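Lab notebook, bench 4. Still working through the backlog of constructs that have no structural model yet. Next entry is a single chain of 292 residues. Request: give me the structure tokens for it.
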Amino acid sequence: MLANISIGTILYTSYLQILGTVHQPSSLSTQRIHPPPSPQSTLMAGFTAGAIQSVVAAPLDALQLRFRTSDITKGRYRNMWQYGQRKLKDIGTRGVFAGWSLSLLKDSFGYAAFFSTFEYIKAQAYYGFIAKYYGQWELRSEHPVLRPRIDDLHSGSVIRPHYSIEPVFLMLAGIAASVTQQIVQHPISLVQGVHHKSVLALENKVQYEQFRSQSRRNYRVSYGKTYEHCLTFAREYQGWRRWLYRGFFWSTIRQMPSTSAGLIIFELVRRRFGTDIEAVLISQGGYGILVT
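Model written out:
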């Protein structure tokens, strides 16, 4: 659990640092970023942060893949630290990064879609909605649905959007980001699961010392085995798409609460520790729309 928290922290920290490099306003410790980062910037930051996470998480993934409860309960290892140390020594660097190319694809493209979707709906879509909705306020003022607060500042009227709009967009951004991430990661995860079984099957045939002596050839063979197994599954399900996206709906439902909550907490913490800045003023339809 501690390792997973650490990896998640590395992911979000890397994303913020990289986003601040490619989008200068994001490097400022402010509660509201304006102008918001472009989709290209968030895609690049998410892609790179996901790639960094895949490297950091590789040893943990290798240990989880090979972990058997009986190794601990039967006294083969005194504790998890000893298990991790000995197992990593046994499998070597190539064993740690066996199948890492699939992890790299899954994490980099998955988090690129994840963060870019979240940032776009949270910022661009939100600003676009309030500009369009309140920009036609004269047409809506007789039957308001989301009544704003209207202040007369100097010679012009300033509209403060209804307080409930932004939290709704924040929630929608979290849900959409989770779904988009699953669209990318779900099929790669299925292929990765097949590949891991191929790697374990090859490792179990021989002792680690013999396996490591021919590790390059053995791991190359495992990719061929993975393709053969995947091709068999695709034929059984009458197509690659049917197989790759089987169980997608329930997998997304299970994943959505944790990922959405994680993003919302991430955004709240970013705003909590950000410095106050002047509110964003959007001019539309003769009104000033003030976003605080």
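Notes after review: The first helix runs from residue 2 to 22. The longest strand covers residues 149-153. Flag for follow-up if needed.
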